[in-house]
Amino acid sequence: MAGSTTASRENLRREISREEGGYKWVKRLLVLAVIVGLIAGLVIYRVRNAPPPPPLYVFAELSEGDVNENVQSTGTVKPVTEVQVGAQVSGRVTKVFVDFNSNVKAGEVLAEIDPTILSAQADSTSAQLASASASVKRAEANLEAARLRLDRAKKLATEKIGTQSDVDAAQGTHDVAAADLIVSRAQVTQILAQLKQTKTNLDFTKILSPIDGVVITRSIDSGQTVQASFQAPTLFVLAQDLKKMRVFADIDEADVGRVREGMSAEVNVDAFPSVAFAGRVVQVRLSPVSQQGVVTYAAVIDVENPDLKLRPGMTATVTIKSAEAKGKTRIPNAALRFRPTPPLDEKGKPLPQEPLPKVEPGKGRIWILVDDTPGAEKVEPLIVDIGITDGVYTVLLSDPPSQKIVRDETDAASGAAGGKKKKGPF
Question: Among 73, 191, 282, 426, fewest CB within 10 Å belongs to which?
Answer without folding.
Answer: 426
